[in-house]
Amino acid sequence: MTDTNSPLVLGTRPIGKLLIEYSIPAIIGMTVTSLYNIIDSIFIGHGVGPLAITGLAITFPLMNLVIAFCTLVAVGGATISSIYLGQKNTERATEVLHNVFILCIVHAVCFGAITYVFLDPILMFFGASTETLPYARDFMQIILLGSPISFVFIGLNNIMRATGYPKKAMLSSLFTVGANIIIAPIFIFWMEWGMRGAAFATILSQVCGMIWILNHFYNKKSFIHFEKGDYKLKKRIILSIYAIGMSPFLMNACACIVVIIINTSLRSYGGDLAIGAYGIVNRMLTLFVMIVMGLSQGMQPIIGYNYGARQFDRVRTTLRYCILAGVSITTFGFLISEIFPHAVVAMFTNSAELTELANTGLRIACLMFPLVGCQIIISNFFQSIGKSQVSIFLSLSRQLLFLIPCLIILPKHYGTTGIWASMPASDFIASVIAVITLFIHFNRIKKKNTKEININV
């Protein structure tokens, strides 16, 4: 009898039940993580001031780079480990765990050290002014010093979810967020540490989560766990991790470029507070994007396992359910943003000027938001089945091929309105391309299966 905690049930249990079991914990974890970012922004907006929100927005490109180097290892490792488990190869899955752990530390130390040395010039390039630079610097210095903790926490949490423990992965996120929500107001309001207090709270909360995850992987009862004397980096695993993880890496790296262009454009056409308005808009829309990403994280081990086991009907069913759910999530975000923009923005700031700028930006930026859920799921589907090149193309299409040209052209004619309008324009085009790519993929599979049947007959 198959253990209900074993990942082997990914190939036998009903898809609906598996999606609930795997996606709901991931969605809760991603939602709570996004909510704590929002709450952090609320604490900073009310406890430090409107320019502090702008300073936080200035750090977004750098935070995207932090996430990029982290997900390069985390997502690639999670995908490969679930495929190995689908092939009943626990030895290879364990090797992936060890390599992910080492690579997370290496990436964090190298990236954190280099960035820390050149932090001020980087932040100025990202759109900081003399007024907002101190806020951004105070926040990022602490985040960079704690990057090894962040990388290990995020990387191993993805492996935990992919190797059959979605509830534990959810609990680690909840534990981390809960700690941050308690610590942040103490550091910001009571101890008056400002931006540094917010950053300290983030890192200390991740320490709590990291301890929880390491305890799991050192426990011999865990399905996949650390083994003594097997911590060597292996070229074949590293290359596989990078090949699969390159898609989310490039997506986050391009997001960095996009945010730099948005920040510098908003500073030119609207000033520092316009960047703060984007910070608020970004936090709000990211909440729903993160929910869909949680859904895709729950989808990934199910699709990866069944694709490895060549159970393609189960793969299609999982994808169909996830597209429907993803579109529903982003449609709800669209309705909230269009109907209640004032209530959303009022959570972050009391500044009348910042509120007006953010209201306008939110309503324009989310015009095509319902389509975003479909685009994210399709992109992550190709990542889950190991089609890294297709996934990279779809991940980059919205930002590199469509959004950046719109951000260069539209603001010249429409100012800040053109900056906001660039987002829904690129959302629409990228979603259409994703759907077309998916149809082409399944038509090829259908033709291949038909050919094999005819040969067998």
UniProtKB/TrEMBL annotation:
Per its UniProt record, what NCBIfam families does this chain match?
A: matE (TIGR00797)
Transmembrane regions listed in the UniProt entry: 18-39, 51-84, 96-119, 139-159, 171-191, 197-218, 239-262, 274-296, 317-340, 360-378, 390-410, 422-442
Q: What is this protein called?
A: Multidrug export protein MepA
Where, subcellularly, is it found?
Cell membrane
Q: What is its main location?
A: membrane
Which keywords annotate this record? Answer: Antibiotic resistance, Cell membrane, Membrane, Transmembrane, Transmembrane helix, Transport
Q: Which family does it belong to?
A: Belongs to the multi antimicrobial extrusion (MATE) (TC 2.A.66.1) family. MepA subfamily.
Q: Membrane topology type, per the record? A: Multi-pass membrane protein
Q: Which PANTHER family has this protein been placed in?
A: MULTIDRUG EXPORT PROTEIN MEPA (PTHR43823:SF3), SPORULATION PROTEIN YKVU (PTHR43823)
Respond yes or no to whether keyword Membrane is given for this record.
Answer: yes
Give one Pfam family: MatE
